[in-house]
Every structure is written in C-alpha cells, then in structure tokens.
TrEMBL record:
Record family assignment: Belongs to the peptidase M54 family.
Function: Probable zinc metalloprotease.
One MF annotation (Gene Ontology) recorded for this entry: metal ion binding
InterPro entries linked to this entry: Archaemetzincin, MetalloPept_cat_dom_sf, Pept_M54_archaemetzincn
Protein name: Archaemetzincin-2
Needed co-factor(s): Zn(2+)
Organism of provenance: Rhinopithecus roxellana (Golden snub-nosed monkey)
Length: 337
C-alpha cells in the first residue's frame, strides 16, 4: 500500500497569459510621447524590457493562480499599464530635495542588539539596491512607548497588537524634510481598528508613510507552540507599555528576512503609485495569504520596472549591476552574454 504525498505537488489552476500585443502596449503604450521616451532608453535597457513580450522568455513569465483564494480571483481590480501610471495625477514623484527613504524600527527587531543591527543592515542594503538612485536612511530605533499608540491583546490569537493608524500619525510627525517616505517596521502584530483581527501593514500614500509588521512571518506564528501568547491580560492602563518589555519576538531566519525584503519593497512600490500587477509574475502582484506572497518573485516585471524607472530616473542596467540578489546575478549574466 503506497501512500504518496500528493498534496505537496502544487496544482496550477490557471495561467494568466496575455497576448504579445497586450503586453507590448502595457509596457510601451501607444501614446507617441511615451513611445519616443521608450526609444530613448539605451539598447541594453530596451533589450531587457522587451523580454516582457517574448513568449519564450526565461526572465519573465505569466502569473499563475493556484487557488480561488489567490488575490486576483478574490480581489478584482482594474489593471494599471505604464501609460495609466504615467498620467496618474496623484502619484508621488521624488522631488530633487525629497529623495530619501527613511526606515523607522519600532520595538525590538531581533533578540539581541547585534541581530537587530545585522537584520536592519540587510533590509537597508536591499532597499538601496532596489530603489537605486534614492538614499535609504535609518531613523533612531524607538520603543513602542515612544509612539504613544493604542494596543491590545487579540482575543483569538492572544498576541499583543499595536494600532496601525496611531503609528502612521507618529511617523507623519517625525517625517524629515528630505523624506520621500518613512516606513515603520515592527515585529509586533498590527490591527487597523477594533473590529478587525489583524493587518500586515497599512500606508498613507498622501502622507508618504507606512507601517509593516513581520510578526506573522516567523515560522512559529501559526503554531500551537507560539510563544507570543499573553496568558492573562492584567488590567493595565493604556499608557503602561511595560507589557512590551521582553515581549516575544520571532527568530530572524533567512525566510523571515526574505519575506520582509519582499514586503518592504512591494509596499514602498505602492507609495510610488504602482498598483497591483496583473501582467506578468512580479513583485507587485497582490497577495492574499503567505503562500501566495512566497510565490511572488523578488523582481519587478518590465512594466512595473518602467514605472519605477520613470519615477526615480535610474539606468536600468546600472541598477541591476549594483544589486546583488540571486535574480540580479542571473540577469547580470544574461546581460553580459
Ligand atoms: Zn500590495
Ligand atoms: Zn509587474
């Protein structure tokens, strides 16, 4: 009697495959101004971007849907091509005096100071390579108490949670003069309002601030043994933050680091006005659950890359040369062939 682990095999339910013409128009557009802007990119840049509509490309592929709970099926949204992005009057463009992305950590990130510093160094370096041409700076880390945010113990999961909107207000007040945006990161879980169970993150595009929690990215959050459960909530005053002292934080593993790099760059992408990608497999695809988020690639598809390039103004080839992720090594090799 053989038992096989069939469930381990991913079942591809649907492939979203657009025609070459659709992808070409989404990338280059039919607007003569944008066409000539595209033609001004240098040959190497265009060669890479044109891979978007090569059906046999080994760099970019179609989006695959694996379950009805995946983002595109459960959250129908209007797609955004390059031209729609370009002509969006509300999108944020880094002005010459506002070209810094600030990262503010809230509460402890790692179990020791050294781990925290190492982790934030990786995150910062990653964002620098990703948003090539902008500065990425760290604000002095603050304890939860400094934000004066509301907090609670979640009745279902029994973990500590802080109020996302309060944190956004705090970040807005602290936003430096030269900031394009300020992103807060924390290992404490977030909730957006009393009636909600939790939220991974929240951002205000008009204020250029965002807060993202990596609490649920540890390997143990959904396990029975999760140590962040608060056994019994002593009646504490809303200004007594001592409950956060020595509160459980997940171990920083490579998986947690990878997930946080992806989340941070995806969310900062939204602050630039990039909407969820429905063209090709891409970092900007929406995700409804952790498994779908893990499936998303680290890199942007050419359509989203052109949006970012147009906002920041980097040279696409140079950007790939400075970054050192696995994907970029692959690309670097391809470009030098
Ligand atoms: Zn998103
Ligand atoms: Zn994309």
């Amino acid at each position: 009697m053989g038992t096989r682990c069939e469930w381990k095999k991913p079942v591809i339910m649907q492939i979203i495959r657009h025609s070459e013409q659709t992808l070409k128009t989404a990338l280059i557009s039919k607007n003569p101004v944008l066409v000539s802007q595209y033609e001004k990119l240098d040959a190497g840049e265009q060669r890479l971007m044109n891979e978007a509509f090569q059906p046999a490309s080994d760099l970019f592929g179609p989006i695959t849907l694996h379950s009805p709970s995946d983002w595109i099926t459960s959250h129908p949204e209007a797609p955004q091509d390059f031209e729609q992005f370009f002509s969006d009057p509300y999108r944020k463009i880094p002005s010459p005096d506002k070209r810094s992305i600030y990262i503010q950590s809230i509460g402890s990130l790692g179990n020791t100071r050294i781990i925290s510093e190492e982790y934030i160094k990786w995150l910062t370096g990653y964002c620098k390579a990703y948003f090539y041409g902008l500065r990425v700076k760290l604000l002095e880390p603050v304890p939860v108490s400094a934000t004066k945010c509301s907090f609670r113990v979640n009745e279902n999961t029994q973990n500590l949670q802080i109020h996302a909107g309060d944190i956004l207000k705090f970040l807005k007040k602290k936003k430096p003069e030269d900031a394009f945006c300020v992103v807060g990161i924390t290992m404490i879980d977030l909730y957006p309002r009393d009636s909600w169970n939790f939220v991974f993150g929240q951002a205000s595009l008009t204020d250029g601030v965002g807060i993202f929690s990596f609490a649920r990215y540890g390997s143990d959050f959904y396990s029975m043994r999760y140590e962040g459960k608060v056994k019994k909530l002593k009646k504490t005053s809303s200004s007594d933050y001592s409950i956060f002292n020595n509160y459980y934080i997940p171990e920083i593993t490579s998986v947690l680091l990878l997930r946080s790099c992806k989340t941070l760059t995806h969310e900062i992408g939204h602050i630039f006005g990039l909407r969820h990608c429905q063209w090709l497999a891409c970092l900007m695809q929406g995700s409804n659950h952790l498994e779908e988020a893990d499936r998303r690639p680290l890199n942007l598809c050419p359509i989203c890359l052109r949006k970012l390039q147009c906002a920041i103004g980097f040279n696409i080839i140079e950007r790939y040369k400075v970054s050192c992720g696995v994907d970029s090594v692959k690309r670097g090799k391809w470009l030098s062939e």
